[in-house]
Amino acid sequence: MFPEVKKEPSALASRVMTLLMQAWRGRWPEVQWGIQLKRMLSANSKESCDVAEILMQQAVVGSSPNNLLLSYLKHTVLSQIVPCSSVLKYITEFDDLSRPHCILALVNLAEVFGTKLSFSYGPDSPLQLSRSLLAVLHWVLLLLLKCLQTNREDRPELVMVMDGASRAATAMLKRPTVTALLQVAQAYREFEQTELNLRGTLSQLPQNAFPDGTREHITSMLTLAADLPDVQLASEAVLETPHLPICPTMNSLVALEALLNPNSDVQPFVDQILMLARAMKMSRPKLFLEMFRACFMGLVDASTSSEQLKWATYTFLKMRQVMQKIQQLSGGPDFSSDVEQGIDMLQQYRHLLDRADIKQKWDCLNQFLKELVQAGILSESQISAPKQKRTAQREQLRPADLVTSPTSSAGLIARAETTVVSILKTLETDHLKNQDPLVGVLSQMLSGRSFEIITSAAASMGELKNFTLKLIRSNEFARQTTGEAGKAAQTRAQLFDITFLMLCHIIQLHGMDIVAGHKEASDSFILQWAQRWLPEDGKYRSLDTTANPPDQGKVDSLLHHFMSGGADLRPNMQRWHEVCLNTPFVVQEVLFAWEHKALTPDKVKAVLDNIKSRMGCLSVVTCVWLCSYMNVVGAKARKKPLAMLEHLTGVKVEQGTSTESRSHLMNMVMEQIMNDVLPADHPQRSSARVLVPINVLPIVTLKETLNETFQRGWLGLKSMHTLEQLLALCGSDWFCEKVVMQMLECNKVEELSQALSLVVAIFHMDLEHLTHSLLLTLMPRLLLSTIHTHVLTDPRGSTLAKLCVLCITGTQTSKIGQKEPYIRRSRKRSRIDAELEDMDESDARPGKVRKHHETQLTLNLEGFNLDDIVAKVKEDGETSPNFDTKDPMNKALINLFCLMNAIVHDPSMTPRTTFIVSFIEEALKCGGQYTRFILQFMPPKMLPQLMKTLPGVFSNAQILQICDLSMLSGRKVAAQAISSNSRFMDKPAAT
Q1: What pLDDT was estimated at residue 862?
Q2: Which of 34, 77, 126, 890 has the highest count of CB atoms within 10 angstroms of its CB?
Q3: Distances from the Cα of 21 to the Cαs of 15, 66, 127, 230, 809, in angstroms?
Q4: What is the Cα–Cα distance from 71 to 940, expressed in whole angstroms?
Q5: What parts of the sequence cross the membrane (predicted)?
């Protein structure tokens, strides 16, 4: 029953009642009733009355409904004279099962409103209508539940009610707009409880309690109702590469990790590949295949380069750690079987495995399987079949190709793990008591490639920091003299020299951050010296040639020693760190004396010979000083220091001298120090490290490298290092623009897809900075330019949108739960970071814009600014979600969405508009936290404007993901967009 009306009817209500009685007596048609009612309401617009209540009260007065009045009510709602939500409200208040015919009439009326009503226009607010629809659907389920609970044979009319109710609910749930609006309403608790009760009651009733058709209708309706809260987007890939023979992104990411991040923790890398695998909808066996195949491709590619040890270390030591981490994060009962499938697919590439074995002179797959077993990824029984299959494949090779070498990188790395553990134990011993054995062990490490192998293995095992700290501890012990004489003093000098050279080499390869933040390391001499003098990433330290030494007497004494042949340089009296600090002042005096003709060239050479014959560390500090000096003086003044440098590096250490065993490592350290300061055509300059010619424009080198990479389909060793040098040389803004524009020059969809897959991986060289350059510099330039419109046209525009979204999600992934972003070593704080941190939003005002007849695209269009996003108080006391406004990524996205919002509100529609749609669609494909992170910066008025400009451009499921339904403002925008979408989404249902 309806609640009784306690208030006195208004004058307008009385006139409406009179008109209703007149229409009923005269049996007016619906149209005539509608016309007369509308005239009356227009003539009395200042008064108000609830027409819906009046019609409802009169239509169901007796035991049977008044069908004429119900037709009036239906016409009044469908012609939008009265709000539908008010009628639905009164319908849900009627619950008198003693009048089943009235109930059935109201159910049919609700079905008409739910399936025929136009949601695009009307007096109801879309959000209010969504709540009313959920309420009436809940009411229908309650009716069904009550009918089932009171079903008796003497009341067959209840079966009619159940049939009508299940039919009405089914019809409503099949309408896309209704189901979308029901999700916007977000009040499922009572609805789901009623649905659960209805299912339970239905299952408990005997099969013959009511007709089978009725049970079937209710069951099918409940199936639709169960899916109501789970209207999800179809799973689509942001980046699709199934048409390519290999996945360039995964292949190149493995290469970047193996060669540029040998000492990094595996966690950031695993996070990236898992994120990209989800974005690419790549199965786990396929992911494992791509990673394993990349390792073996690297073993082949680097077999003749100096980086073959890095690939071997990564393949046989680091990859098992990656697999263990993946197992921890996304394991499951099928993990081992997925790895087996990956291995099985890898064995289909027999020629790749054969080439790896021939190049490495080792059974690489067998060794790889052993490492997986050792890590607990596979069992012995699981690798038996792959081993047998590989053995049969190897039997078809020539005997000469089956030769295994004891010096193979694969074999050496396989044995290096136990060696590293043994060396770490040795370094733990008491230095005061065990100097001789320690020096012996360290000297053995300098033979051949031993030290390189051990450091590579330690890096992959995660023990390089520990190893470095122990070397620093040994170096600190050896730098002080305790007055010992003879062999003990010589041993201490050798310990200092060896550890100094080792630490210099480690810092050159892995950066000073290898021991950053550790107090013992930061207070050590070697790290303080390296921070002051040792070049990093080709950048030399500042040099003051007018500086005075701390103790001129020690410099004079040291100069005398080197001038006289160094015979009286007594090890038992020396503090070796002081010798290292004073030697550059000695070299400076020798150079200045030579320049003023106080010394002959032969005497200068003799001094350098004495320096190099003493200790390797003295040659290194001399080389560093000469390079820094050459870096700050003019071309004419470089002649003599260059000659000194040439002689220093050209002197061969005589066999049997104290530095003979350390000469190889010393030369490696000096070669890397002086490589960037030597002239391009200098014979001592390592051509292998200079991949960007100085006589060719960087853009030419970049285009040649990218064209070769895009055509090949994977990132080769030389290409990777060339791109790395170009990035370091020209900066992230230049690099980002040129790489992206080169990608967009591809003409075919397949070519664009392959280029995009490679560029995504290339950006991981410095993902955070390149993403900021993409969002803050390049994208605004492209969106505001009139000459680059073609790059925003599909398929280029959608490719560019994919790149933006993948870079954003990759950068965000690196920040979630990570101490450091996913970049190579410690790239310096960029100018962009400084500008973003120093910018004060409260002082940021738009500059003056020239007046034109057309609307200008500015960041202030529609009154939208940062304050609107950050702290604007919404309706009903609701506030926007908080986020860090100082974060560069947040600022970049805010800036980009401001610009896109301005473009959307511009009167003209261009490819820029379609790019914005593509950007949002690709963001939706990411799903979960990534979609929410990107779209949280979207202005509230942007979606409605897009729906006006491009009606039906987004589906209801997309709208539900775009809007934040946890906030009232988001639900309002979603309801409005879904309602305006109804004329497109409901067409299939209507037919």
Answers
A1: 38
A2: 77
A3: 10, 12, 34, 47, 66
A4: 40
A5: none
Q: Tell me the pTM.
A: 0.85
Q: For residues 540 and 545, what is the distance between their CA atoms, to the nearest angstrom?
A: 15
- The values of phi and psi at residue 879, to 5°, are -120, 155
Buried b (16+ CB within 10 A) or exposed e, 482-509: eeeeeeebebbbbbbbbbbbbbbbbbbb
Give rounded-to-5 percent helix, strand, coil for the chain.
70, 0, 30
> CA 655, CA 227: separation in Å to the nearest integer?
82
Q: In the block, which residue shows the tokens 């060794």?
A: 367
Q: What is the total residue count of the chain?
A: 991
Q: Which two tokens stand for residue 473?
A: 């501890």
The C-alpha atoms of residue 718 and residue 688 are separated, in whole angstroms, by: 9
Give the closest residue to 296 by CA, choosing from 352, 254, 344. 352
Buried b (16+ CB within 10 A) or exposed e, 862-883: bebbbeebbeeeeeeeeebeeb
Task: List the one residue out of 824, 821, 823, 780 whose CA is nearest residue 800.
Answer: 780
Q: State how far the Cα of 478 lies from the Cα of 435, in Å rounded to an integer.
A: 9
Three-class secondary structure of residue 323 per DSSP: helix
How far is residue 437's CA from residue 430's CA, in Å, rounded to a whole number? Answer: 11
* Whole-number pLDDT of residue 860: 39
Q: Chunk the chain into consecutive blocks of 10 residues (it has 991) and report each block's average pLDDT, rounded to whole numbers.
A: 53 87 89 89 80 86 86 88 88 86 91 85 82 91 88 74 91 90 82 87 82 87 81 80 90 93 88 93 94 95 84 93 92 88 95 93 93 93 94 88 83 87 85 78 84 89 90 87 72 90 90 78 88 84 80 87 69 77 92 91 90 87 92 87 88 55 84 80 65 86 95 92 92 95 92 95 95 95 88 92 95 71 41 43 37 39 43 45 74 93 88 94 90 91 91 90 88 90 67 34
Cα distances from 538 to residues 689, 699, 729, 931, in angstroms, run: 11, 20, 10, 40
Beta carbons within 8 Å of 778's beta carbon, 6+ residues apart: 733, 736, 737, 740
Distance CA 824, CA 806 (A): 19
C-alpha 769 chain-centroid distance:
13
Residue of 622, 613, 594, 619 whose CA lies nearest to 630: 622
- To 10 degrees, the CA torsion angle through 605, 606, 607, 613? 110
CA-to-CA distance for 944 and 970, rounded, in angstroms?
A: 12
